[in-house]
Structure formats: structure tokens, C-alpha cells
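@channel sequence for tomorrow's demo:
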Amino acid sequence: QGEIQDYLEEHNNYALQLHTIYFGIPGQVVQQNYAFRYPSLVRALFASPTMINGWAHYSERMMIEEGWGKTDQRMQVTQLKWEIRRVLQTIIDQKAHTQEMSRSEALALLTSEGFMETGTAEMVWRRVQLRPVLASADYIGKELILDLRRRYQQRVAQDFSLNQFHKQLLSFGSPPVKYLRSRLLTGDL
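C-alpha cells (generated this afternoon):
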């Protein structure tokens, strides 16, 4: 009974909205829709998690910045809680695979600093073991996209349009975000 209650508390209405943004619209569904417009074996084989997952994670933050849930601070707090968790998952992802962190240390970090229930922390630990660097790709990809957006906005100044930035960013498919920097910042599209 306790595990069910913990799961329901973790995956409340606010968390489900963030999951929908991440996995659905404007997250992975939109990113993949753009990627499929430019079918290429090379692009398909070298699709980067920093772009796919980074875009999805970026989408959560962008939606909050653009006003999603602005009338309910619980939505904003939930998004910040997920931001903290992604940072912790990135740390665990790195340290677990370099033997600098044990399972018990990771679980303690997630439950004390990430506000996770033990069952959810266990799922995170298993995911880190089964899919190395994926947690890092979420966080690093989001940070790279935010940095690219800031630099792009500085370059185009008063002509900046968030919608236009997103269309240009997504138009390249799913390459590593770092390779999009030169295309978007030089104006050589």
C-alpha cells in the first residue's frame, strides 16, 4: 500500500503535465516530427540524445517560462524539483560509472536532496545502470540548447522570435547540439 501511495504522490497531476510536455508536445514528439522530415541514414544512425532528450527537457523549462501553469505555483515548484533531480541524476550517472558512487550513496542522495521516495530512487538507479549517459544527455542537452538560445538571441537582437529559433534549431534533425552552434550563430542556415 505504501509503494502505491508513494508512486501516486510522485506522479501527481503536475508531474504528469511535465511528462506530457517531455514525451509529447512540444517535447520528443515535435522534435522527432521535425527529424523525420529530413530522412537520412546518417542522421538516423547518429541521432544524439543531447538533442532528443535535451530538447524534451528544455521544453519543460521553456513551457514554464512561457506561462504554462503560471496560475499555480505548485506547477513551477514541481518543474524545479525535476530540474534538481536531473542535476542529481547527471552526477550519479557520472559517478556510478567511474566507481565513485555506490548504490546506497546514490539512493541516499536522491531521497535526501532530490525529494524522491525510495521506490522512485531505485528506478533511477536501475535506469542509470541500464542506460548510461542518458541522464547526462537530458541535462547537458538542455543546458546547451539554453546557451545556444541566449547566443542566438544576442546575435539577432530585436529580431528574436522564440518560435523562429525553435524552427531553425529543430530543422536540422537530431545531431549533437554542439554542431548546431555554428549553423545558428553565424547566420549560415
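heads up for whoever presents: Residues 104 and 152 are 42 Å apart (CA to CA).
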